[in-house]
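quick q for whoever's on today - can somebody do inverse folding on this one?? i tried earlier but teh output was garbage lol. tokens:
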């Protein structure tokens, strides 16, 4: 019977190379799920504790004055651990510190069997949103009273280990056998534990009865979805009155619900558009309950007309809100389940056929791929959707996923009849749905693709509609980069290895040799092209270079660009594409060779091989199509190159977008659908839809086929919000550095009034970066935690969670933080806007669109720059108030809001709130009194 020693350490930092040392150790000895012994001790580290560690752990220097040196407890610790499995949450960290101290004290290093509970959590709890100890404890309802103290963390890790080993024993035998084959590549010594679980489960029918076997892989047995009867609802007017005003309507469904006139007006407008076959632009101010308003109308129309309605959103958070909050409310209101499904592209769903193929070829896997396969094996015993968004794969795992997604199996011979296809199950559910929820990306892909990407639909509601134009521009354009192209070529090389074809007894050795030769040639040419583009863009000094919002240098390709550079780039691109053409030609020959045995050899491996050859040929066609004309310049498309000037010398990004997406949207969307309802909280500028109509291609529609409605927010902004503008900031044009110093000083002063709880929005990544480092100089870690997009690690959602975790924190963000970041309640008291959010005039798309407007005799500032900035300003403003009880200050560090002629357009586009324009010090004083 195994004995486990669960260890946790607190240290002065995470780098042994910087002489970081232990300050506390906690050990729990456990066998059969029962604690046998506990050991805990503070440790004198022979150095000072950094303030951040003190704020994290609560351990101060004075707490350790009488603590023992590690050498004084080393023998006791060594004997405790000696014959046990050593378990830790991130074993490499704890073991490296332990062994370093043992070596220092003259003990041999430990070579025990190990278990890393981070790794095991990823495998056995693959759907967990986080694998940090505190968040796992919360998810699993493990008591964690004293986080970041060694014994408490060790005890929680012990409870976590017990849960993980229980999950291991619940798995079916075939899953365990696969895991056994993968276990040697993992950090944790799992072989004995898996073998024991296999013996225990071999004849356990209670386990096997819960799963089906497809392609040799156990998957969770699906419950058959019974079709819901679709009895007609009462007439719409009666139904909507019942919903909003009836005692058994929304008042009963939503606690504390209050009827809002604007919400009802929106429902009526949406229904009118759907039922009369019109298009509509509807702006719904924050807090009107926009999503519930259009869902009420969409559901009624779908049920009564037996016609599904498509709903498209920009963010996954809104999709989750619709499915997890709003749809259940409607089901309660209706008194029956609704058929509402989230519809995603094929790339989201696993192909069991392709995964089975990869499982049989695991002998060359690295650590990340072994971990990925292990996670997926366990996840398949949990999931009913097969949707990859349910789990978080390691970095290399995302590349592996491309091999095994349903997108990879789109050319399967039996694609339409594969009873084990999660994609097909998703299609079947969509076919029976009342509502289909998708995203703008898949909607736009469906519009441009020859292959149908969405089920047929005639009526569409587009929420977060202000993003539709930018999403469509991306999909009607090009996005290519060196890293992705190299990855594709590497995958080609792996695939064209003779060992891949050997089991199928097909004589293609010569073709494979030629393919490998062409792949190497393509890699070499791609390197030449990338290095040339990188060096050329980096060396341009006589032209002002713009920067992207993540700090990459940009070079706009225009008809007056350096002719020699453009011609050379074109020639080098053609040299790269020549071997790509050859790979495509040779792949076509391989397809014919394999096709001859597909019908006679019914093995699954042959089918996978055949599909992948077709996919590789299509990939070649896609690269050729995108690159062949990239350096042919015209007046209809904006094209530019980005480089990370501080990065690798071949890391380049190629982009193109149509200058005007309006015509394509008109032709492919509004002209083909009976009704498109576009809604958002930000669609008007200065009370008019004109700009958005031009942007989205709605200008050409006559008034009778387009309905416009703007509904104000019900929030009491006048009582809950103050707008403050300092009148003493330096002029950013002539005193840029002084302006940044002033912003930093203002943020620091305001943070003392608001106790942090501040979101700062920038239009420039460079300004954000400089402000961040200035704040880090003046703000001690025990004062404020400062998080910055692009500097602090983690996604936007991760940064937001970290911001909310700490009591006194400041969050700095650029473009993607101007909207879609909800921080309700006391977590956010102040929104600082560094500059009015005009797109930098040197951005590639901005330059070309300005030029085009000038050629038509129009004013680019009034027609494009100003309305764009107003919409973003409204979006940023909307970050502060997210509920009726929120209150706070919007602090705008840009005097143009008051002094420029166009400032009034910004102010008139937000709710009427008290505005103060005076010195920074007086504003801070006023803020302190008001808050």
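ok took a stab at it. sequence:
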């Amino acid at each position: 019977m195994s004995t486990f020693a669960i260890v946790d350490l607190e240290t002065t930092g995470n780098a042994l190379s910087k002489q970081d040392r232990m300050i506390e150790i906690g050990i729990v000895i456990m066998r059969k799920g029962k604690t046998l012994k506990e050991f805990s001790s503070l440790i004198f580290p022979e150095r000072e504790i950094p303030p951040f560690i003190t704020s994290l752990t609560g351990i101060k220097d004075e707490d350790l004055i009488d603590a023992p040196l590690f050498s004084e407890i080393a023998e006791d610790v060594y004997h405790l651990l000696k014959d046990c499995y050593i378990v830790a949450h991130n074993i490499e960290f704890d073991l490296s510190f332990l062994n370093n101290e043992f070596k220092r004290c003259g003990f041999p290093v430990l070579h025990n069997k190990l278990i890393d509970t981070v790794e095991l959590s990823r495998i056995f709890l693959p759907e967990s949103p986080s694998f940090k100890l505190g968040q796992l404890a919360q998810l699993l309802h493990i008591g964690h009273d004293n986080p970041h103290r060694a014994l408490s963390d060790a005890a929680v890790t012990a409870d976590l280990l017990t849960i993980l080993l229980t999950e291991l024993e619940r798995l079916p035998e075939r899953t365990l056998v696969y895991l056994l084959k993968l276990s040697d590549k993992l950090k944790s010594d799992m072989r004995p534990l898996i073998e024991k679980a296999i013996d225990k489960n071999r004849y356990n029918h209670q386990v096997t009865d819960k799963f089906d076997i497809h392609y040799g892989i156990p998957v969770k047995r699906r419950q058959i979805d019974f079709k819901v009867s679709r009895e007609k609802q009462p007439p719409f007017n009666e139904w909507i009155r019942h919903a909003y005003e009836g005692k058994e309507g929304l008042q009963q469904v939503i606690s504390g619900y209050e009827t809002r006139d604007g919400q009802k007006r929106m429902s009526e407008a949406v229904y009118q558009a759907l039922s009369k076959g019109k298009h509509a632009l509807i702006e719904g101010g924050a807090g009107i309950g926009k999503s519930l308003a259009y869902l009420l109308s969409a559901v009624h129309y779908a049920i009564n007309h037996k016609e599904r309605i498509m709903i498209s959103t920009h963010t996954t958070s809104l999709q989750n809100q619709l499915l997890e909050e709003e749809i259940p409310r409607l089901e309660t209101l209706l008194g029956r389940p609704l058929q509402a499904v989230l519809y995603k592209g094929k790339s989201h769903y696993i192909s069991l056929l392709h995964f089975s193929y990869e499982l049989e070829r695991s002998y060359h896997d690295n650590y990340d791929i072994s971990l990925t396969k292990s996670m997926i094996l366990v996840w398949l015993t949990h999931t009913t959707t097969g949707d990859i968004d349910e789990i978080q794969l390691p970095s290399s795992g995302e590349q592996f996923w491309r091999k095994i997604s349903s997108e990879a199996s789109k050319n399967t011979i039996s694609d339409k009849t594969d009873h084990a296809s999660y994609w097909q199950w998703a299609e079947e559910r969509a076919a029976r749905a009342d509502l289909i929820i998708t995203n703008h990306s898949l909607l736009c892909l469906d519009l441009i693709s020859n292959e149908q990407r969405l089920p047929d639909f005639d009526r569409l509601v587009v929420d977060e509609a202000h993003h539709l134009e930018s999403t469509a521009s991306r999909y009607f354009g090009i996005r290519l980069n060196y890293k992705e192209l190299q990855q594709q070529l590497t995958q080609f090389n792996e695939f064209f290895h003779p060992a891949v074809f050997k089991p199928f007894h097909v004589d293609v050795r010569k073709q494979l040799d030629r393919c490998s030769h062409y792949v190497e040639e393509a890699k070499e040419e791609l390197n030449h092209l990338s290095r040339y583009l990188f060096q050329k863009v980096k060396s341009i000094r006589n032209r002002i270079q713009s920067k992207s919002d993540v700090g990459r240098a940009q070079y706009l390709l225009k008809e007056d660009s350096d002719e020699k550079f453009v011609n050379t780039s074109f020639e080098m691109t053609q040299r790269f594409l020549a071997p790509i053409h050859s790979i495509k030609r040779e792949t076509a020959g391989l397809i014919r060779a394999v096709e001859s045995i597909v019908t006679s050899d019914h093995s699954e491996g042959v089918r996978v091989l055949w599909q992948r050859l077709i996919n590789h040929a299509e990939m070649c066609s896609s690269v050729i199509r995108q690159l062949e004309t990239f350096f042919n310049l015209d007046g209809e498309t904006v094209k530019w190159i980005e480089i990370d000037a501080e990065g690798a010398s071949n890391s380049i990004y190629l982009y193109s977008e149509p200058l005007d997406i309006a015509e394509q949207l008109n032709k492919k969307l509004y002209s083909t659908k009976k009704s498109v309802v576009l809604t958002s909280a930000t669609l008007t500028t200065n009370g008019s839809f004109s700009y958005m109509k031009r942007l989205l291609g709605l200008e050409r529609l006559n008034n009778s086929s387009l309905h416009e409605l703007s509904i104000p927010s019900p929030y009491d902004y006048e009582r809950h919000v103050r707008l403050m503008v300092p009148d003493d900031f330096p002029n950013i044009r002539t005193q840029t550095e002084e302006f940044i110093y002033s912003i930093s000083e203002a943020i620091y002063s305001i943070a003392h009034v608001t106790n942090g709880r501040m979101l700062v929005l920038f239009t420039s990544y460079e300004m954000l970066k400089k402000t961040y480092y200035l704040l880090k100089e003046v703000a001690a870690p025990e004062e404020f935690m400062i998080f910055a997009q692009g500097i602090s690690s983690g996604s936007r959602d991760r940064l937001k969670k970290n911001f909310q975790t700490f009591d006194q924190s400041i969050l700095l963000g650029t473009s993607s933080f101007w909207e879609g970041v909800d921080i309700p309640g006391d977590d956010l008291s102040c929104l600082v806007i560094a500059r009015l959010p005009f797109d930098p005039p040197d951005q590639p798309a901005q330059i070309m669109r300005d030029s085009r407007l000038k050629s038509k005799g129009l004013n680019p500032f009034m027609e494009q720059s100003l309305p764009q900035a107003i919409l973003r300003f409204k979006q940023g403003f909307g970050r502060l108030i997210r509920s009726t009880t929120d209150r706070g200050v919007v602090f705008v560090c840009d005097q143009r809001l008051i002094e420029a002629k166009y400032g009034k357009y910004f102010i008139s586009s937000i709710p009427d709130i008290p505005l103060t324009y005076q010195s920074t010090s007086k504003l801070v004083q006023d803020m302190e009194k008001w808050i």
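fwiw The domain at 720-930 is CATH 3.40.50.300 (Rossmann fold). also The mean pLDDT is 88. so keep that in mind when u check it
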